[in-house]
Every structure is written in C-alpha cells, then in structure tokens.
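G., the chain you wanted modeled:
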Amino acid sequence: ANSTNADTFENVKALMKHPDFNIKNPNRVYSLLARFGDNISQFHQNKKETYEWMAEQIYTLDQFNPQVAARVSGSFELWTKLPKNMQLEVKTILKDLIAKGLSSNTHEIISKTLEAQ
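Predicted structure as tokens:
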C-alpha cells in the first residue's frame, strides 16, 4: 500500500480479496486502506477512480465500525492541494458520500475536510 509502483492501486484492490484480509479487523484496514490513503504518489495520482473507490470503502466501514471509517477518512485531507479539476471531482465524491448517510464520527471528519477549502 506504500509502494510507489504504478500498479499499487490494483495491488491494494487485489489484497482486499486475499483470505488474510478482513475488513472487520481494524489493524488489517489500517495497514492496507489507511496506508494506501497516506500514499501521496499513488492515492493522489489525479485519478477519480482511486477517490471513488476509497469513498466506497469508507462507506462500507462506516456501517459497522464508524471509528475506523473516520480514521481512514483522513485520506482525503490533501484534496485542496490537488489540481483544480481534481478538487472538483473529490469535492463531489465527498458530498455524495455525506449524502449517503454517515455516522456522526465519519460525517464530522468528511465535513471538516470539505470545509478546509
């Protein structure tokens, strides 16, 4: 998840399907999703797909572990440093995530991230 290789995103998605990965295990989530979210060169590679995918993971996590989802939501903190066209994409993704309905923990983190504009 920390790799700078071009295929990191594909590898992270594949690792989520590995038998040893369990999305209900916070340590597994932190070591895969949170690490990928901290990976500036690969998570923030100006591709809408990585942001949409991470938003989906956060929503899934929020359904059964809001504290972990809130922590992983920090992956979006750098969105205001992205090129303007990507900022608009990420802003829309985050607003859509909030519109789905989130726990108070995750809602607060995402809302504050949006306010940082």
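The CA atoms of residues 10 and 67 lie 26 Å apart.

Shout if anything looks off.
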